[in-house]
Amino acid sequence: METLKWQSFKEQLQASPTLDLQFQYAENTWVEASYHITEIKQAPITSVDCGGVMNAWTEVIVQLWVPEEEHQLRSMKVRKALSIVDLVEKALPLNPNAIVKIEFGNAQFDTRQMLPKELRIDGENLIVDLRPDAVQCKAITRGGSCGTNEKGEECCTPAVEVKPKIQLKNLVAEAPSCAPGSGCC
């Protein structure tokens, strides 16, 4: 699944300011309409993968929270979400190329960060269809393999220097020795 970048996500919101903003986090399962956008985080990430390669990217994480005591029939308008984005961007310029993630959880769904698969209009709603993020091996995305390299060595374990085995040889020539009873003395 292609990741959605912040600039594109924001432009899709800006194109539909009068619609209700809905989040679908599982098949036919929606974040309750009383949700709030509690914060927007920008996370620059630097990592080193199992192949020893450094990677860097940025994520913008929109956190949703549903209060237990508050219930309403309609979710916030897109323009309300955009006003929160504007407020955030006055204090924290968000990277337009950052990967967008939506963070959500409730009593039936453990909190996690999910990726917007698509934004689609359905009647008076702009629906953000969320899908779980997946763990991946970056070596595979570079054309390598996860688990072993081209020599059949494991890529995810520290390299262990294998010392060559040597065979000891007796350099002393076999010669008569002076031992008791040998007659040499």
Automatic annotation (TrEMBL):
<protein>
    <submittedName>
        <fullName>Uncharacterized protein</fullName>
    </submittedName>
</protein>
<dbReference type="Pfam" id="PF20001">
    <property type="entry name" value="DUF6428"/>
</dbReference>
<dbReference type="InterPro" id="IPR045534">
    <property type="entry name" value="DUF6428"/>
</dbReference>
